[in-house]
Specification:
The chain is an alpha+beta fold. Among the domains are: 81 residues; 128 residues, Histidine kinase-like ATPase, C-terminal domain (Heat Shock Protein 90). Helices cover 72% and strands 6% of the residues. It has a 5-stranded mixed beta sheet, covered by helices on one side. This is ATP-binding protein. Keywords: ATP-binding, Kinase, Membrane, Nucleotide-binding, Transferase, Transmembrane, Transmembrane helix, Two-component regulatory system. InterPro entries: HATPase_C_sf (IPR036890), HATPase_dom (IPR003594), Sensor_HK_TwoCompSys (IPR050482), TPR-like_helical_dom_sf (IPR011990), TPR_rpt (IPR019734). GO terms for molecular function: ATP binding; kinase activity. It comes from Chryseobacterium cheonjiense.
C-alpha cells in the first residue's frame, strides 16, 4: 500500500508544473479570444491569431478552429476572399468533434463565410455547395434563416429561380423582422426576374418599410438596389431615383461596395452627368482596391509578426527546458524503478505461491501413488495368494499384512521407502508373477535373470515391479485369461518386457481406463515407451521398453 501511495505522490509531483502551465496557457488563450471579440477588423484579427497559437500550445483543437474561422470572417469582410476561404478551410480541419454544439455552430459559420466569399468571386456553384453544407450544421432559427437566404441569393445568380423561391419561403418563417424583410425582398426579386409580368411592388415596399422603420441601412441599400433593377426597363426616372437613394444611404453607412454598385447604376441611367459619376466611381474603385490590397498585406503581416513572437517565446521555453528535462528524467527513472519493483515483488510473490501449491500437489500425488503401490497392491497380492493357494501359511500371510501395515505407517510419517528385504529384483518379480498362479490361471516367465537387472537403478527397479503388479492386477480383474506370460530381454542398453495373455483383450478406446493410466505414467517416468497391441486375434499383448540408465 505504501508503494502505491508513493507512486501516486510522485505522479502528482511530476505533473504539478505541467498542469499549472496548462492552466496558465488556457487562461492566456481565453483572454486573447475575449479581447478579439471586443475589437474589430485588424485588431480583432491580431488577437484571434494570438488566441489560435495559444490554443495550439494547449492542444485545444476547438479553440484553434473557432479562432481561425473568426479570422476568415474578418478577411471576407475586408475583401480578402481567397485568403478568407483558405483560412476557413484551415479552421475546419480542427473542428472534428461534430457532436459538440459549439463546433457545429462554428462549422456552419465557416461554410457560410466560404459561400459569401465565393459569391463575391462570382463562383456561385461553389457558393451553393458551401451554403448547403452550412445548413447541415445549422441549429438556431437565426442561422437556418440566414443560410437559406444566402443559398437562395446564389441560386438566383444562376437563374435557378424555383429553387431560390423555395429557400426564400423557408426563410420567411422567421420571427425576426429584419430577416423577414430580407427574405421578402429576395423572394420578390426572384419572382419578377423569373416572370416579367409579376408585380413585386407590394412585397418590395413592405420590405423597405420594415428596414426604414428599424433604421437598417444595409437593408435599405438592398431594397433600393432591387427597386432600381425592377424599374430599369419600365421607368428609368424611378430607377435613377432609387439608385441615387442607394448612393446616399451607402455613403452614410460608409459601404464602399454598395456605393460602387449605386454609381454603376447611375452612370447607366444619367447620361447628362455620367462623367461626374464615372470619375467618382474611378476614385472610389481605386481606393477600394488599394484598401483590399492593404488588408491582404496587413493580414499577412499580422500572421508573420505573431509567428515571430511565437518563435521568440518558444526559444525562451527551450532555454529553460534542459533543467526541466533533467528533473523530469530523474523523476521518470524513479517512477520506473518503483513500478518495476512493485511488479517484480508481485510476480515473485505469485511465483512462490504457485511453487508452494505445486509442491503440495506433488506431495499429495506422491503420497497417493505410494498408497496405491504399497497398500492397495500389497493387500491385493496377499488376497491373491490366499485365494490361489489351497493350503496357505497363516503366519506368513499375517507377516505380509503386518509388512503392508508398517509400510503404510512409514508413508504417513514420510519415511524412506527403502525395502529391508534382501531379495533381488529378479527374485521379487518371479515371486510376484508366481503369486497370481492358481488352478484357473497359469503364469510363465522367461528371461528374468539376475544379470538382466545390472546397472538398473533401485528407483527404476521399483517402478518396473509396480508396473508388473499393475498388469497382473488388471489381468486378474478384467481379462478372464487363463494363461499369462512375461518375457524379459536386454539388448545393449535397453530392457524390453513383453506381456501377453489369452483373455478378452482390451479396446484401444479404453486403454487408459481399467487401472492402466498409472502404468503409462510410470513408463514415462522411466523415459520408456509402452505399446498396446489390440489387433491380436485373442487376448492382449503389451510391449514395454526403457533405457537402463
Amino acid at each position: 500500500m505504501k508503494n502505491y501511495l508513493l507512486f501516486i505522490l510522485l505522479i502528482l509531483l511530476s505533473s504539478c508544473n505541467k498542469e499549472t502551465s496548462n492552466f496558465q496557457n488556457d487562461d492566456i488563450a481565453s483572454n486573447y479570444y475575449k479581447k478579439a471579440k471586443s475589437l474589430t477588423n485588424d485588431s480583432a484579427y491580431y488577437y484571434y491569431n494570438l488566441a489560435k497559437n495559444a490554443y495550439l500550445d494547449i492542444k485545444d483543437s476547438s479553440g484553434v478552429g473557432r479562432s481561425l474561422v473568426n479570422m476568415a470572417i474578418i478577411q471576407q469582410e475586408n475583401g480578402d476572399y481567397y485568403g478568407s476561404i483558405e483560412t476557413s478551410l484551415e479552421g475546419n480541419r480542427y473542428l472534428k468533434n461534430v457532436n459538440d454544439t459549439i463546433v457545429r455552430a462554428t462549422l456552419g459559420s465557416s461554410y457560410n463565410n466560404m459561400g459569401i466569399s465565393s459569391s463575391y468571386l462570382y463562383d456561385f456553384d461553389n457558393a451553393i455547395k458551401f451554403y448547403t453544407e452550412a445548413l447541415k450544421y445549422a441549429k438556431t432559427p437565426a442561422d437556418i434563416t440566414l443560410y437559406h437566404n444566402n443559398l437562395g441569393d446564389a441560386l438566383v445568380s444562376l437563374n435557378e429561380y424555383k429553387a431560390a423561391e423555395h429557400n426564400f419561403i423557408i426563410a420567411l418563417k422567421t420571427k425576426d423582422k429584419l430577416s423577414y424583410a430580407r427574405a421578402l425582398n429576395n423572394l420578390a426579386r426572384a419572382r419578377f426576374t423569373d416572370n416579367s409580368h409579376y408585380n413585386p411592388l407590394p412585397e418590395l415596399y413592405k420590405a423597405l418599410k420594415i428596414r426604414e422603420e428599424n433604421n437598417n441601412l444595409p437593408g435599405q441599400n438592398s431594397s433600393y438596389a432591387t427597386l432600381a433593377n425592377y424599374y430599369l426597363d419600365k421607368n428609368k426616372e424611378k430607377a435613377l431615383e432609387y439608385a441615387k437613394k442607394m448612393l446616399a444611404v451607402s455613403t452614410q453607412s460608409e459601404s464602399e461596395e454598395d456605393q460602387l454598385q449605386a454609381l454603376q447604376k447611375i452612370i447607366n441611367l444619367d447620361s447628362k452627368n455620367y462623367l461626374k459619376y464615372f470619375k467618382q466611381f474611378q476614385i472610389l474603385n481605386d481606393s477600394l482596391q488599394i484598401s483590399k490590397t492593404k488588408s491582404k498585406n496587413q493580414f499577412a503581416i499580422v500572421r508573420f509578426e505573431v509567428k515571430q513572437q511565437n518563435e521568440r517565446y518558444q526559444k525562451l521555453v527551450e532555454d529553460n527546458k534542459f533543467d526541466r528535462i533533467k528533473r523530469n528524467f530523474a523523476i521518470s527513472i524513479l517512477i520506473i524503478v518503483l513500478i518495476v519493483g512493485i511488479f517484480w515483488y508481485r510476480k515473485r510473490k505469485i511465483r512462490l505461491e504457485q511453487e508452494k501449491e505445486l509442491e503440495i500437489k506433488n506431495t499429495q500425488l506422491k503420497m497417493s501413488k505410494k498408497v496405491h503401490d504399497v497398500v492397495a497392491n500389497g493387500i491385493y497380492q496377499v488376497m491373491t495368494k490366499i485365494e490361489n493357494q489351497e493350503h496357505f501359511d497363516k503366519e506368513k500371510a499375517l507377516d505380509e499384512l503386518e509388512f503392508v501395515y508398517e509400510k503404510s505407517r512409514d508413508i504417513s510419517y514420510e519415511k524412506s521407502d527403502d525395502s529391508t528385504e534382501e531379495k533381488n529384483i529378479s527374485e521379487k518379480i518371479s515371486e510376484l508373477i508366481g503369486s497370481f498362479k492358481n488352478e484357473s490361471v497359469n503364469t510363465y516367465i522367461a528371461g528374468n535373470d539376475k544379470n538382466l537387472w545390472e546397472n538398473v537403478s533401485e528407483k527404476a527397479q521399483d517402478e518396473v515391479y509396480q508396473i508388473i503388479r499393475e498388469l497382473l492386477v488388471n489381468m486378474r480383474k478384467h481379462s478372464r485369461a487363463n494363461t499369462v506370460s512375461f518375457r524379459f530381454e536386454r539388448m545393449e542398453n535397453r530392457i524390453s518386457i513383453i506381456y501377453s495373455d489369452n483373455g478378452i483383450g482390451i479396446s484401444g478406446d479404453i486403454i487408459y481406463k481399467n487401472g492402466l493410466s498409472s502404468t503409462v505414467s510410470r513408463i514415462e517416468n522411466l523415459h520408456g515407451e509402452i505399446i498396446f497391441d489390440t489387433k491380436t486375434e485373442k487376448g492382449l499383448k503389451i510391449n514395454i521398453s526403457f533405457p537402463v540408465s
